[in-house]
Amino acid sequence: MTSYITKTLSSLATNGTLTPPLTPNENDAKSISRSSSPHPLISPEQNLLRLKAHLQNLPTDLLKHVHLSKIRREDPSLYFSAIRDDLTGLAPIVYTPTVGEACQKYSHIYQGPEGLYLSIDDKDRVPEILAEYASNLSTTPQILVVTDGSRILGLGDLGIGGMGISVGKLNLYVAGGGVNPHGCLPVVLDMGTNTESIRNDPLYIGLRRPRASLEEATEFMDLFMAAASAAFPNAVIQHEDFYSEAAFAFLDKYKNQYRMFNDDIEGTGSVILGGFMAAAKQASAASGKALKDHRVVFLGGGSAAVGVAKEMMNFFKMQGLTEDEARERFWLIDTKGLITSTRPDVVAGKLASHKKYFIRNDTEGKEYPSLADVVEYVKPTALVGLSTTFGAFGEDVVRRMADLNEAPIIFPLSNPTSKCELSFSDALNWTDGKVLFASGSPYAPIERDGLLREPGQGNNFLVFPGIGFGALQAGAKRVTEGMITASAIALSEALNEEEKKAGLLYPRLDRIREVSARVAAGVVRKAQEEGVDTNEKLRGLDDQALIKEMNDAQWWP
């Protein structure tokens, strides 16, 4: 990501775990702060053209990802110039869906350290390591993206391979949010992995042990969060791809202590709330139903699903509903069916704690084990998928949604594409083109009935750079729930007139810098309203002036 990151990291320990040395070793990695044009007759423009031509000749997206990773380490300006010129084309290469495969094969394609690797075996040294690490930096990190690799996208426990997701997110912070790459620090906390095939892989570079218990992990996280906040007191810390129980536990524990947020829970909730606001208005216009009368079925009961549902409740609160009334608009399905108070595992007290908020108490003892059963019972206006099960929205269910609604809202959000519940083409075909669609991974536009239909992509990329950047610019003491909701509202208001006419649910990615500035401004404004900002310079500015400040503060290659 930056010269100091690769320069100060570390030796490969005998057990295969990467840990940072207390004193940076100049021989560990070469500095990447080199010129884009080492030869006097070769211009940066030529290097950029050469890179683009080379990428076109590479046969697979993974090979393109690997080559771009090498360019990022060697020449960040060239790397981000390429992304600037073709963000729509390269975002799927540097992030989803290709980053999923890169994380799965991380130890096989490993070319050198990309960030900060901390082992749970060294947990007692974490404060010392980070203090020494910070003292040797010429530029202080502004954004840390940290993962333990336990739930990467929909691909499971990938251990140290989670570093790929931390790097990928920070690539998007720079490309989409304008964060200076020299202020980005990707972190992986190696706590082992429960994926036996990965542990037994002779090329695996992480700890070869089962994953630490939540109790052990919490002890490690306590040390890391305190040490990271002490070493980088002005940084925003983003949690990424922790397994559900840990994700909620860490968010609840640290949210009011540190300047942090969880992208899977809060970022996903924000981007889906923003898209749902647009979709609900279009669906209500088509049906004549009141906005408050939408009914939402979720397939999936993990941290992302619960986080999204809780954030989407704010839509109904905006329509004047109480919290309890808003919650009643949601039905959640996990692997055992609709979550009800009379389901045997719920009665036995075996339901995961994060799901309890959405237990249904109104089913009169009847259970609904399948998605089709729930759709017939609820007659929803919206269907949201976060199940990580490919094809989970079958033809019968989708056609039933179209029978029930003039404009059915269907959001299959699982990443990567191999885990997505429904393809865009099937959604169009099975609803006769009536669907209001947004997915987690990208799909190509499709021409239907003489119109070019563009799928929505509920990609966190539309909000998390603005959340982090806005929190930084505000000097926010913490990232509040109000700031997360403000990011969703700002996103929904970022659609331009042409996008509204085309029926889009989200702004196009080629406007991401403009969108991120608006989101950041919304976050700053809410921080000011809630009294958690410290940057007095931004107080008193009107909305347009605040957006301009966000634009002006963005880094460009």
From TrEMBL:
Belongs to the malic enzymes family. Residues 72-255 form the Malic enzyme N-terminal domain. Divalent metal cations. Prefers magnesium or manganese. One of its GO terms (cellular component) is mitochondrion. Residues 265-528 form the Malic enzyme NAD-binding domain. Pfam families: malic (PF00390), Malic_M (PF03949). Transmembrane segments: none annotated. InterPro entries: Aminoacid_DH-like_N_sf, Malic_enzyme_CS, Malic_N_dom, Malic_N_dom_sf, Malic_NAD-bd, Malic_OxRdtase, NAD(P)-bd_dom_sf. The active site is at Y95, K169. This is Malic enzyme. PANTHER family: MALIC ENZYME-RELATED, NADP-DEPENDENT MALIC ENZYME. It comes from the Eukaryota. GO terms for molecular function: malate dehydrogenase (decarboxylating) (NAD+) activity; metal ion binding; NAD binding. The keyword Metal-binding applies. Keywords: Metal-binding, Oxidoreductase. Residues 15-41 are annotated as: Disordered. Signal peptide: none annotated. Gene3D superfamilies: Malic enzyme, N-terminal domain (3.40.50.10380), NAD(P)-binding Rossmann-like Domain (3.40.50.720). The keyword Hydrolase does not apply. (S)-malate binds at R151, N415, N459.
